[in-house]
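Entry:
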Amino acid sequence: MRNKEVAEIFNKVAALLEIKGDNPYRIRAYQKAAQTVEALTVDLESLANQGKLEILPGIGADLANKIKEILKTGTLKIYEDLKREIPLFLLNFLEIPGLGPKKVKVLYEKMGITSIEELEKACREHKIAKLPGFGWKTEENIIKGIKLFKEKTGRKPLGEVLKLAEEIIEILKKESPVENIAVAGSIRRKRETVKDIDILITSFKSEKVMKKITEIPLVEEVIAFGETKTSVRLRPGIQMDVRVVEPDSWGAALAYFTGSKAHNIRVRELALEKGLKINEYGVFKGEEKIAGKTEEEVYASIGLPFIPPELREDRGEIEAALQGNLPKLVEYNEILGDAHVHSKYSDGTASLEEIISKAEKLGIFWVAICDHSQGLKVAGGVSIEDLFKKKKHIEELNKRFDKVKLIFGAEVDILSDGTLDYPDEILAEIDFVIAAIHTGFQQPEEQITNRIISALKHPLVHAVAHPTGRVIGEREPYAVNMTKILELAAKYGKALEINAYYKRLDLNDINSKAAKEKGVPLIIGTDAHFIDQMEYIPLGVAVARRGWCERKDILNTLSYEEFISWLKKVRNQA
């Protein structure tokens, strides 16, 4: 698959255009295209051959042609032209906190700096402070930025940062005079990875709130302190910006700082068409402020219903809102069960009794116990003998407990030849079979795709777990033709998993939306191996919501009895 190659070129074109000072809309188009391509597990070459590139979010005719150019030549004319015009090493400078495109350009043109090492040396020799527009503080910040760049670059998984943000919000609610408080930015949109934490507050005693922020034990460094905005660096190495806004601007500020940039641009365009101006302070008709207290009134002022944060990515949500076709997204409290949990029978750390207790605390009513199958020795795969011990154990517990029911399941390995890790007569005894690939990640796309297709066609299989095999920040998705997988899953009425473990989130949002559109049932499982990992279920729901999924699209919204009926139905129709 050459998706990564295309995404990388698009990202570099966007960065080089930014250094050049090109049109922001043009820059964002390349950035958005790179994000779309990067998230895909469908082979771009396959889509190009089918003439389907333009169905991808943010990919119009022009970008589709550029993708074809990269696939054909291995590069892009505009990229080659920019490389001749702008040195490629300057891209690294943009990753240093505090350095924008204009400053990067000055460093190169005025100082001839060509590496981060040279930049650090010039800062320590106090040569940078003398440049116009820099100064001593900028020089100091560049040194700090270089240190951070060397320690850690890139984005962090949502599951790590969300908990941190929630913890800080709870501290501020309890220990400072806040009135309204909310997380904004990509965390509120529930993007799978995030770069920083944005928190909005209303308070009549903002100075006390800001002072409290600097005293939070998690804060490692105060970057900037003010009555309306304070920026700090937290110990996990992530920046947090806290803003205090006026109560009558709360909704406007929340919408503005939630983003995405692309969504906000579309909203502002609609406002301009109506002779209005929208910013973080409110909606204005001339000098008169006509809305801003709530997000609902901000959207209503330009003729739109409220658009949930998870949809605000400029992937068609504006058009759907204008036409009255926004989906009624699945709600977090509509989830009644967890479809993928490991117990002590394989490599999980919790007993069945502990899993029941945790489920009750989480307010869910059924859990599918899907331990690894016998062949996966490294994960304590369950022998056939132990499998039936587990079955009996589950039956006994289901007689004892009324609130939470366990489902006798298994995560069955799909072997290299496409066969399954238990014989059919054993599979027939398992109430819920979720098949998965755990080996052979480097196999060719055709082989991996055919392995999953074999599982989907198997009459005793109900679902496929973590269908693309990716681990965020650690392992790329294996080569798999998701178009074929979705077609076969729809044809055979089989489910695909949204794995809610924070490093997987697989299927991702784009593939979840594609599955919904094909009529493929989706099922959320935490893949919990430790009892507290069952708390990740909302991350899976967030993926579903970003994928435009409604209650009817998610099997976890079924009651225990309804889910058991679905399991039987799948086998009856096979």
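The longest strand covers residues 405-413.
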